[in-house]
Amino acid sequence: MNLDQAERTSERAPQVERHDTVVVGGGQAGLAVGQQLSGLGRDFVILDALDRVGDNWRRHYDSLRLYNPARMCSLPGRPFPGPGDRFPMRDEVAAYLEDYASSLDLPVRSGVRVERVESRPGGYLVIAGERTYEAANVVVATGTFGRPWVPPFATELDHDILQLHSSEYRDPSQLRPGPVLVVGASHSGADVANELADEHAVTLAGHVHGQAPFDIEGKVAKLLWPVLGFMARHVLTLRTPVGRKARPEIRAHGGPLLRYRSSDLTGKGVEMIAERVTGAIDGQPVLESGRSMDVANVVWSTGFRQDFSWIRLPIIDDDGWPREHRGVVEETPGLYFMGLAFQYSFSSMLLLGVGRDARHVVTHLAKHRPE
Question: Could you tell me which residues are beta bridge partners of residue 131?
């Protein structure tokens, strides 16, 4: 082999890095794990598919505000800036996460999309394009949301109807003139319906799974938020019967109405229909009662489906969720999860709860997986 051939072969050879721990995902869950690993002096790297820390928040709709006050939004070691009783905007959360990673000098590799994780003797291989990472431990911190889901019959709607999943919705300028059908009566569906009602005739279809009994930004709420935070962290957990009963419901259904309740929406002219959208007839969406909806736009606030098919290990149950307990996969030592919906408590998928979950995961890792 001559020198040119050797150089070409070298260029094609996969690039391999070795770390004690690879964290997949650079959102709040991954950063909280990084803070814990850094505190123990462990060797690790955080791989994130997006271009910039905080982009997982910047991709939400422009008007998004958190549903809990800033005092309940802090990650370990760094309080959320500003008054504690205000409700931060989307971009504020993104900036907080970016500053958090920078101030702690966390080793985040942005723009690195992990394609698969597979086992190897003594650990794991994490493959991302032409680069391969060898690690004794892998923490999957890709969060609660998987792939955006819309019903299969969405392809049968007329091509003149603009369709967006709620993860694609940014602001009203994306929509065409005419009526809007928002499918999915969760808090995100309510947010979108409320905003669009200023310019469109809006119908919100779907069953409401509860709603806040008070204005979440009102005077009563200021007194109750400490109680609600305590319940989210210490009552609705895997240790309590009420928490264990709530977990599958929370994972299977959309969240309750929070900022905008039924009375708020109907007061703005939103038509609320407690029916599912079940199909299409003549290119129009149809409700389970048989009513056809003549609309120009459909926003699918229909949630996400877990997709861990890129993890080439037999640890995913039929419901799409990994077999883990508090993020620890006992049957596959060295594999962990972070940021799952109700991983340990209702707060697990919130900024409020990822710190505690990260401590549990990293404590287990340090005890059972010496560097």
Answer: 15, 128
Residue with tokens 């709530």: 246
DSSP code, position 318: T
How distant, in Å, are the alpha carbons of 25, 111, 137, 309, 351 from that of 108?
9, 10, 17, 24, 19
In degrees, to the nearest 5, what angle opens at C-alpha 302 toward C-alphas 301 and 308?
A: 125
Residues 6+ apart with CB under 8 A from 145: 167, 304
Phi, psi of 163 (to 5 degrees): -120, 130
Report pLDDT digits (tens) over 154-186. Answer: 999 999 999 999 999 999 999 999 999 999 999
* Contacts by 5-11, CB closer than 8 A, 24 or more apart: none
Distances (CA, A) of 363 to 123, 148, 167, 370: 18, 33, 34, 11
Q: Terminus-to-terminus CA distance in the chain, angstroms?
A: 40
| Burial status of residue 140 (CB atoms within 10 A of its CB: 0-12, 13-18, 19 or more) | buried
Average pLDDT, the chain: 93
The predicted structure's pLDDT at residue 271: 97
C-alpha distances out from residue 332 to 59, 318, 344, Å: 33, 18, 19
The total number of residues shown for the chain amounts to: 371
**53-89: per-residue pLDDT in tens?**
999 999 999 999 999 999 999 999 999 999 999 999 9
Cα→Cα distances 10→7, 19, 262, 292, Å: 5, 22, 62, 61
Q: Pull the structure tokens for residue 302.
A: 């229909």
- In whole angstroms, how large is the CA radius of gyration of the chain? 22
Domains of the chain listed by start with CATH number: 3-146+306-368 (3.50.50.60), 148-212+256-300 (3.50.50.60)
